Amino acid sequence: MYEPIRSPSVHTPADDADFPHRSREEELDIQLAGHLAALLAVTDELGLGAAGDRIAEQVARLRGAPPARHAGLTDAAPTELHRRAHALAGRALLVAASRADTTAAILAAIRMDAHTAALAGPAPSGQLVGAH
Known about the structure:
By secondary structure, the protein is mainly alpha-helical. It has helices at residues 24-45, 49-63, 78-98, 102-120.
C-alpha cells in the first residue's frame, strides 16, 4: 500500500559530515568574545581606558590573541554610547552566566553598573546611587 522510502530523510543526522563541529562551550566562548569586543569598541570611544584594558584582557583570554582596539569614532552622543555599552554588557553578562565564567560575568556586571550610573547623572551629595 505504501511505497518504501528509498532516499535518506533530510532529518537524519549527518554524523559523518566533513565540516568541523564546535562544542557548546566553544560556541559560547565565541559569542562572549564577540559581545565583549563590541563593548570594548564602545568603551574605547567613551575614552574609558582602564575599563577598556580590563575588557581587552578578557577578550584576549577567550580568543587567545589580543583584540584590535577601536580606531574610529561614530560621533554618537555620550548618552547613546552609554546606552549601547549597557546593552552590550548585559548581553555579555547573560552569556558569561550561561557558561559559568565568573570573571567575565563580574566584569560585565561592573560595566553595566558604571553605564547605569553614567546615564543617571551625578548623585546628589551625601547620597549613594541607588540608595533609598
